[in-house]
Amino acid sequence: MVFTLTSSKRRQQLGEDARQSRASAWRTGIAWALVVIYNLVGAADIISTVIALDRGAGVEANPFLNALMVHAGDGWILAKLGLQGLISFMVLWFPHWIVLTFFAVATTGNVLIVASNFSIAGVF
């Protein structure tokens, strides 16, 4: 995929596809709804992770995030929020139905992770 973006024709086509996707009020509305849900779930993920770690109920399973927690302290929260912002921007920039479908599935997966975090922490 990266190599296909090196041609100016492919970049131009991608830009045109994004413009057409954004022109659809339906797709844009769905994208905004998914982005709001995604960011609420992301905030819940941060909260559930902090609660579980503070209670000593578990460890961070994501090795990248775990390393970030060790080396950046509470800065991992800003890094996670920054990544959420970037992902949100990308979905809003290109609300194609394939992107929206994958994003909805990934967000659903995050909901399951958050529920697991709260369960591990003994919140419910």
Word description of this protein:
Helix content is 81%, strand content 0%. With 124 residues, the protein is mainly α. It has one domain. Helix 2 runs parallel beside helix 5. The termini are far apart. 12% of the residues are buried.
Q: What's the rounded overall pLDDT mean?
A: 91
Shape: elongated
Number of helices: 5
* Biggest sheet statistics: none
Task: Give the strand tally.
Answer: 0
Instruction: List the domain count as a whole number.
Output: 1
Distance between the termini: 42 Å
Range of helix content: over 70%
Helix-strand sequence: HHHHH
Q: Structural class, from helix and strand content?
A: mainly alpha
Short structural description:
Helix content is 81%, strand content 0%.
Helix and strand arrangement:
Elements (H helix, E strand, L loop, with lengths): L7 H16 L1 H30 L8 H10 L2 H19 L3 H25 L3
Helix pairs in contact: 2-4, 2-5
Question: What are the main properties of this structure?
Answer:
single chain; 124 residues; mainly alpha; 0% strand; elongated
